[in-house]
Amino acid sequence: MKFTPLIQELIDSFKILPGVGPKSAQRMAFQLLEQNQTGAARLAKALQTALSGICKCKICRNFSEQENCPVCSELTRVESGQVCVVATPSDVLAIEETGHYHGRYFVLMGLLSPLDGVGPEELGLDLLAQQLSAGQISELILATPPSIEGDATAYYITDMAKDTTAKVSQLAQGVPMGGDISNIDSRTLGHAFSGRKFIEQS
Amino acid sequence: MKFTPLIQELIDSFKILPGVGPKSAQRMAFQLLEQNQTGAARLAKALQTALSGICKCKICRNFSEQENCPVCSELTRVESGQVCVVATPSDVLAIEETGHYHGRYFVLMGLLSPLDGVGPEELGLDLLAQQLSAGQISELILATPPSIEGDATAYYITDMAKDTTAKVSQLAQGVPMGGDISNIDSRTLGHAFSGRKFIEQS
Predict the structure, then answer these.
(1) Of A64, A173, B71, B200, which residue has the fewest beta carbons closer than 10 angstroms?
(2) pLDDT digits (tens, 9 = 90+) for A105-149
(3) Is A6 in contact with B64 (Cβ distance < 8 A)?
(4) Beta-carbon neighbour count of residue B63 at 10 Å?
(5) Shortest CB distance from A6 goes to which of B12, B34, B50?
(6) Across A68-72, A78-82, B1-5, least confident range
(7) Is pLDDT larger for residue A179 or for residue A166?
(8) What is the distance between the alpha carbons of residues B101 and B95, in angstroms, rounded to a whole number?
(9) Is residue A169 over pLDDT 70?
(10) How far A18 CA sits from the closest chain B CA (Å)?
(11) Domain ranges of chain A
(12) How many whole angstroms separate alpha carbon A175 and alpha carbon A188?
């Protein structure tokens, strides 16, 4: 005996979600059908309206419901001339939560990974190049993650900005808050050493 | 800064799913929007067709796409007179996989739990009582889980079948296959002791 086709299709569809295997998908399908049909209808509607209503901002490529996202529409952010390059929309949120940055963003929606077919075009780097050559950017802050792909992407963008007036900076790497020195991986510790700061003694 | 309303609603909708917290919901929403819009559309459609196309079998209360589910439509199963009472549709599947049982089922879609507002009516026990008094059932096999709610439900159903011709049986409880005796909880071990079988010596 198998599940009926409609239930099987629902279970298979849940398996699309990240971190959801066959057992979890089955639990999700049954719980929605047994106990929460209102929730199931709400999820279906949210998916559909998100798919039809969400596009990418024409300036920063972040998800937006208008052509230009709220961040790119703020005059003070645009006039700061600072552009922070991040890999994903969640990174934007994390940086906004620090309260330390008041410029605008450029969201790559991924990282360079030629083997997976992700090249400069997929990351919208032609759009960034236009903005660089138009002289709209005074400082380009690279906030790509410290990984092979992240470093390759940062290197590529640094190279793009070479012949423009934009200064390029990168987030400091080192020991995280609350980090226990003995438990930190050697690459991070290496970065922390090479980026060490002298303390002014008075 | 917050997510745009459509993204926030999508994230909140994912939080409805069992075992999905705020971070997982965010990851699900972003991954579908960034990398798998086809998958998102498929999930939305699967939810909607499941909600509109799946009803409960009028005989066994299991999920079905017709009035009578395929199991209850099999003449040999109905004629066996055996009815296995289970809590959820997944239990039906698990029992079918054993290949040891060839009767039909009765799916409670829950267990008695007065504090949560789940009484005999919510479990369709009036329907089971009808089938019992109509003399359609020769053996009622209780396969409710060994828990307080499961035992209470089994006790209630046993009481219901008292004045009918149906015999009532319950799944054997004891040491599971591959179970390490020292790691088994004391209740299970107690059941295994009281249910011990003498080995015929020849």
Answers:
(1) B200
(2) 999 999 999 998 899 999 999 999 999 999 889 999 999 988 899
(3) no
(4) 23
(5) B50
(6) B1-5
(7) A166
(8) 7
(9) yes
(10) 6
(11) 5-43, 60-170
(12) 7
**Chain B contact for A94 (CB, 8 A cutoff):** no
Contacts 24+ apart (CB under 8 A), A95-100: A95/A143, A96/B1
Please name the residue of chain A whose CA is at the shortest distance from the CA of residue B7.
Answer: A50
Q: How confident is the model at residue A123, as a pLDDT?
A: 93
Query: What does the pLDDT read at residue A1?
Result: 56
Residues 52..71 of B with a Cβ closer than 8 Å to A: which?
53-54, 63-65, 69-71
- Do B28 and A36 make contact, defined as CB atoms within 8 angstroms? no
- The answer to whether A43 touches A37, Cβ cutoff 8 Å, is no
**Phi then psi for A200, rounded to 5 degrees?**
-70, 130
Chain A residue closest in CA terms to B61 = A34
Q: Does domain A5-43 have CATH number 1.10.10.10?
A: no
**Percent of chain A whose pLDDT exceeds 90:** 52
Residue B79: strand, helix, or coil: helix
* DSSP state letter for B116: G
- At residue A90, the 3 state secondary structure works out as helix
Are the beta carbons of B43 and A89 separated by less than 8 Å?
A: no
B70 φ, ψ (degrees, to nearest 5): -55, -35
Tell me how many residue pairs between chain A and chain B have CB atoms under 8 A apart: 159
Question: B47 and A42: CB-CB below 8 Å?
Answer: no
- Give the pLDDT confidence score for residue B104 in this predicted structure: 94
Q: Distance, in angstroms, between A91 CA and closest chain B CA?
A: 11
Residues 100-129 of A with CB under 8 A from B: 109-110
Taking only the tens place, the pLDDT of each residue in A43-53 is: 999 999 999 99
B24 contacts in chain A (CB < 8 Å): 18-19
CATH 3.30.470.20 fits A60-170, yes or no: no
pLDDT in tens, A12-25: 999 999 999 988 99
Q: Which CATH code of 3.40.50.720, 1.50.10.10, 3.40.50.280, 3.40.1360.10 fits the domain covering B66-170?
A: 3.40.1360.10
Pick the CATH number of B5-53 from 3.20.20.80, 3.40.50.150, 1.10.8.420, 2.40.50.1000: 1.10.8.420
